[in-house]
């Protein structure tokens, strides 16, 4: 494992890819409609929510920095070990959620006539192995991948420009502010990656607050732009499509490149790989925190086997998939990882007495 | 151990790449084993859908110097089934190959589907994974869709490609609207909008046949053809929908000569007013064109007087096309295929909610005013005389 530290910007590149993956694989559902101008404004709610949930995370970061400057640290306790296991469980379910969605995408849009179980198992194992490279390697790869994703997405946007029909938009806040806020919150709840920040604090160098603010605003703008093109080019048709973002991409062509969707799909697979590998790293790190004797690589590989088995079971029946994509699950995971657990940790950290770092325990 | 790990990583990457970037959409299937569908015609008779497909002749395409081969570029198959999907899937029993819909260019739908609707036809194409939302739609007027697919065009041509080009170029010239699956689905999902699809017929040309545009078919809310717009009436659709990009107009001048104008820009603006409970749509078209040809003779050089005549002529021509289309749609209860309801929804959402359910009736009573502002941008290479006495 490469154990180098990462800059705050590199780390947030990783989170950026993870969030973009959510948008690329975004599903329209009965509770959230895509074909509405409000969809383009939903990232505003995401930005607000992201800044609100940063409050407890920011307090933990501040506390962590204060302790570090005084060469103090918090000793592992059973309570913190339980919290770590809860984090492992949250991100294990998040892996299942993302992979199940990717499985649905691959088996519906890319290879509808083939059994994609083996493919998904290979992806899962690949991601687990990639997670062994550590945060440094994943973050640096995210820097390169982000450039690829941005270039290809801009290419798609440019070629979709002629497909934009303003008749496809709807009046703003058509169904009222309450519905808009609800849908916005449900969208924001997809960003479970925010909760990972506190797990990697010791490895992140630089101003996290500034990098986080940049990430939130840049992600919000990117998502709003993507949704603008999806709504503008598809209109009401978006709601009848399983993966509206992909359907919009299928309309794009650029000179001789008539099938940009093939190119874009390859880039999306990079996003999925980064996201799943990162989540495997989170799971293995959290489990390793509690059970120090189990090496991280065994945790990652064991988790990948378990994920493969569960995904194979879920993949067989679309009804099983609906639980993993349910709003209640997304909201629960989001609240736990970004609000409840960080607040609990902060309250706990304020109460326990820190220990002094010595040459031995560093 | 480290070396083994590297070899394992490279192998895993290879498997990963191979499975991600397979060269063919149907993994593990040779191109020659696929029916690469180019065009699909759909008819409905005696309780069965009849689909006729034009597929690429893979054997001929694969022959070196294939053009000299005696075989045709395409093959045509027909099959009937209880649903469109059923019929299309059964085609495999005739051709022995798997269908590939991803490259289909055009879907031709018979104007008369008896008890079935256009939604019944499109359902398969909306749900099918291979099928692309950008496929073009057209209606076969007065003929079976099968006949259009089996048209005797010039030898060795992909008929669907010719039809696709005809539809695309005619749209570019603002003669007809372009209707793809996605556009049809959007219109059918909106209970106030009527779907309008270009109609095509076959015309004899010596021993061969040619495709010919025959206006547009307007579908009612039940998904059945309620009326046809004529060729001239269809030309107004582009102006009403703010969808004119290119094209030309040929009109009579006051002196009896004829003139042709090349369109280079057109933008339609909409204002909605309510007066005594009635909706009034004020349409303003900002139109720019070049003179392509004017009648020869004494007044062939476009002086100021002629320029004014030309401007008036174009103004009248555009307005008359728009009014003709509006009148036809209102009189024949053809319905709102120009998305007036959508404009109302965007401009006055509260008002729209109150009239949404009764829109078909309201549409017939909408009053409209049309104002056309014409700019003659260029007059060609002939001398422009600025002096009136010239």
Q: Which range does the strand content of chain B fall in?
A: 25-35%
Biggest interface between protein chains, with counts per chain? A-B, 31 and 29 residues
SSE pattern of chain B: HEEHEHEEHEHHHEEEHEEEHHHHE
The strand line-up of the biggest sheet of chain A is 1-3
Instruction: Please state the overall shape of chain A, judged from the principal axes of the Cα atoms.
Output: globular
Distance linking N and C termini of chain B = 95 Å
Q: Major beta sheet of chain A, specifics?
A: 2 strands, parallel
The helix content of chain A is: over 70%
Number of helices of chain A: 12
SSE string of chain A, helix = H, strand = E? EHHEHHHHEHHHHHHE
Span of the ends, CA to CA of chain A: 19 Å
Largest β sheet strand count, sense and barrel closure of chain B? 9 strands, mixed
Total beta strands of chain B? 13
Roughly how many Å is the radius of gyration of chain B? 26 Å
The count of DSSP E runs of length 2 or more, i.e. the number of strands of chain A, is: 4
Structural class of chain B: alpha/beta
Rounded mean pLDDT score of chain A: 90
Poorly predicted ranges of chain B (pLDDT <50, ≥5 residues)? Answer: 64-68
Mean pLDDT of chain B: 86
* Overall morphology of chain B: globular
What can you see in these coordinates?
The complex is a heterodimer of chains A (362) and B (390). Chain A is mainly α and 362 residues long. Chain A has helices at 8-24, 37-69, 78-110, 117-131, 134-160, 176-188, 208-234, 244-250, 260-290, 296-315, 318-324, 327-351; strands spanning 6-7, 72-73, 204-205, 355-356. In chain A, the strands form 2 sheets. Chain A has a two-stranded parallel sheet. Chain A has a two-stranded antiparallel ribbon with strand order 2-4. In chain A, helix 1 packs parallel to helix 7 and helix 5 runs antiparallel to helix 9 (260-290). The model of chain A has no long low-confidence stretch (mean pLDDT 90). Chain B is built from 12 helices and 13 strands. The interface between A and B is medium-sized, with 31 and 29 residues.
């Amino acid at each position: 494992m490469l154990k180098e530290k990462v800059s705050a910007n590199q780390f947030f590149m990783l989170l950026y890819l993870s969030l973009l993956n959510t948008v690329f694989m975004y599903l329209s559902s009965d509770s959230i409609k895509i074909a509405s101008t409000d969809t383009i404004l939903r990232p505003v709610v995401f930005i607000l929510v992201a800044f609100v949930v940063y409050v407890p995370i920011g307090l933990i970061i501040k506390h962590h920095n204060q302790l570090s400057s005084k060469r103090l640290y918090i000793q592992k306790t059973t309570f913190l070990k339980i919290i770590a296991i809860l984090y492992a469980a949250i991100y294990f379910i998040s892996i299942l959620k993302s992979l199940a969605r990717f499985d649905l995408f691959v088996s519906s849009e890319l290879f509808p006539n083939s059994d994609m179980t083996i493919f998904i198992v290979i992806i899962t194992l690949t991601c687990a192995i990639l997670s062994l490279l550590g945060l440094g390697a994943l973050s640096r790869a995210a820097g390169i991948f982000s450039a690829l994703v941005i270039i290809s997405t801009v290419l798609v946007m440019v070629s979709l420009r002629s497909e934009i029909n303003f008749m496809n938009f709807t009046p703003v806040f058509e169904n009222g502010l309450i519905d808009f806020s609800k849908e916005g919150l449900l969208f924001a709840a997809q960003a479970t990656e925010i909760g990972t920040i506190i797990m990697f604090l010791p490895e992140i160098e630089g101003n996290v607050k500034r990098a986080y603010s940049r990430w939130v605003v840049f992600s919000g703008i990117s998502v709003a732009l993507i949704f603008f093109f999806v709504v503008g080019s598809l209109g009401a048709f978006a709601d009848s499509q399983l993966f509206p973002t992909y359907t919009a991409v299928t309309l794009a062509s650029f000179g001789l490149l008539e099938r940009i969707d093939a190119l874009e799909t390859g880039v999306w697979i990079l996003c999925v790989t980064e996201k799943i590998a990162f989540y495997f790293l989170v799971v293995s790190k959290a489990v390793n925190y509690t059970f120090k004797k189990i090496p991280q690589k065994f945790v990652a590989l064991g988790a990948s086997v378990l994920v493969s088995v569960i995904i194979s079971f879920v993949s067989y029946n679309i009804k099983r998939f609906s639980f993993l994509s349910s709003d209640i699950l997304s909201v629960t995971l989001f609240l736990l990882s970004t609000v409840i657990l960080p607040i609990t940790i902060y309250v706990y950290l304020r109460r326990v007495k820190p220990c002094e770092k010595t040459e031995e325990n560093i | 151990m480290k070396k083994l790990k590297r070899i394992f990583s490279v192998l895993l990457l290879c498997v990963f790449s191979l499975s991600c970037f397979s060269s063919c959409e149907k993994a593990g299937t040779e191109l020659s084993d696929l029916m690469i569908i180019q065009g699909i015609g759909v008819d409905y008779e005696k309780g069965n859908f009849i689909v006729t497909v034009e597929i690429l002749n893979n054997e001929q395409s694969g022959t070196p110097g294939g053009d000299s081969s005696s075989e045709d570029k395409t093959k045509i198959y027909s099959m009937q089934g209880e649903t469109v999907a059923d019929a299309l899937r059964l085609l495999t029993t005739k051709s022995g190959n798997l269908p590939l819909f991803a490259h289909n260019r055009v879907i031709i739908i018979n104007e008369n589907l008896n008890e079935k609707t256009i939604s019944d036809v499109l359902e398969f194409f909306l749900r099918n994974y291979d099928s692309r939302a950008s496929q073009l739609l057209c209606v076969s007027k007065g003929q079976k869709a099968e006949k259009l697919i089996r048209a005797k065009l010039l030898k060795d041509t992909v008929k669907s490609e010719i039809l696709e080009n005809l539809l695309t170029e005619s749209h570019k010239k603002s003669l007809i609207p372009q209707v793809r699956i996605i556009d049809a689905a959007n219109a059918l999902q909106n209970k106030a909008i009527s779907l309008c699809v270009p109609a095509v017929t076959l015309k004899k040309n010596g021993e061969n046949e040619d495709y010919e545009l025959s206006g547009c078919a307007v579908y009612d809310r039940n998904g059945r053809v309620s009326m046809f717009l004529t060729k001239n009436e269809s030309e107004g659709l582009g102006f009403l929908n703010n969808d004119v990009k290119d094209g030309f107009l040929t009109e009579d001048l006051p002196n009896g000569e004829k003139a042709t104008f090349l369109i280079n820009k057109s933008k339609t603006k909409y204002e909605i007013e309510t007066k005594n409970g009635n909706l009034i749509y004020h349409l303003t078209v900002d139109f720019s064109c070049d003179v392509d040809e004017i009648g020869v003779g004494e007044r062939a050089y476009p002086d100021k007087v002629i320029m004014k005549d030309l401007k008036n002529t174009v103004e009248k021509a555009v307005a008359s096309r728009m009014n003709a289309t509006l009148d036809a749609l209102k009189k024949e209860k053809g319905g709102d295929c120009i998305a007036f309801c959508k404009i109302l929804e965007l401009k006055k959402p509260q008002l729209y909610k109150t009239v949404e359910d009764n829109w078909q009736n309201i549409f017939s009573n909408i009053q409209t005013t049309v104002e056309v502002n014409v700019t003659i941008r260029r007059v060609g290479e002939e001398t422009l005389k600025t002096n009136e006495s010239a």
